[in-house]
């Protein structure tokens, strides 16, 4: 219930202040495990990633946020779960894989941090998808969050990562690069639109 209320409020916020346009929502499977992989430029990216969709999106969030009394309770109720700084713990990975095996949707930013925008990408998204059998949907967030300027979110077609199912370190790097390449392609295509 809290998630639906928050999504409605964010939808109004993004529509009013950033003229949100969502493209390709039909590419996001309506059921089953999905990893949404998006580029990361702002603290507003996580709510933006899930706002246009009807399904709940789970996110890893810094463990310190859960120590803030009201905020910690709210983000727990809207599907976030803690991850420690400096690396993802086994417990966080296990929880993420279990969420996916249970047919949920997980939002991941393969770049890792906002400061790594345009970087090579981290292997976590590919690893989670391959371990759980989840569909991988590339997502491009296009725009700069400037008030009253258009923000566009583009959901691409699910990627076939079956060629990287060996899950060796090299396979994960290649799978991650395939994800990042498609995010960059979508971003480039819709930046010009």
Automatic annotation (TrEMBL):
Record-annotated membrane-spanning stretches:
none
Keyword Acyltransferase assigned to the entry: answer is yes
Q: A Pfam family for this UniProt protein?
A: Acyltransferase
The keyword Transferase appears for this protein: yes
Q: Record's InterPro entries?
A: Plipid/glycerol_acylTrfase
Ranges for domain Phospholipid/glycerol acyltransferase:
34-144
Cited CDD domains: LPLAT_AGPAT-like
Alphabetically ordered keywords of this record: Acyltransferase, Transferase
Q: In the record, what terms sit under GO molecular function?
A: acyltransferase activity
PANTHER family the UniProt entry points to: 1-ACYL-SN-GLYCEROL-3-PHOSPHATE ACYLTRANSFERASE
Q: What name is this protein filed under? A: Lysophospholipid acyltransferase family protein
Provide the species name.
Answer: Paenibacillus chondroitinus
């Amino acid at each position: 219930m809290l998630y639906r209320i928050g999504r409605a409020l964010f939808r109004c916020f993004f529509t009013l202040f950033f003229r949100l346009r969502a493209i390709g929502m039909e590419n996001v499977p309506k059921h089953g495990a999905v990893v949404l992989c998006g580029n990361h430029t702002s603290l507003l990216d996580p709510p933006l990633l899930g706002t246009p969709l009807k399904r709940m999106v789970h996110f890893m969030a810094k463990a310190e946020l859960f120590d803030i009394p009201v905020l910690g309770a709210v983000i727990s109720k809207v599907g976030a779960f803690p991850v420690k700084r400096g690396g993802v713990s086994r417990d966080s990975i296990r929880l993420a894989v279990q969420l996916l095996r249970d047919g949920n949707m997980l939002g991941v930013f393969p770049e890792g941090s906002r400061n790594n925008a345009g970087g090579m990408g981290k292997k976590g998204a590919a690893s989670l998808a391959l371990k759980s059998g989840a569909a991988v949907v590339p997502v491009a967030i296009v725009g700069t969050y400037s008030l009253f300027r258009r923000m566009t979110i583009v959901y691409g077609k699910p990627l076939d990562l079956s060629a990287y199912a060996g899950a060796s370190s090299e396979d994960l790097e290649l799978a991650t690069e395939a994800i990042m390449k498609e995010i960059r392609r979508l971003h480039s295509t819709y930046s010009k639109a």
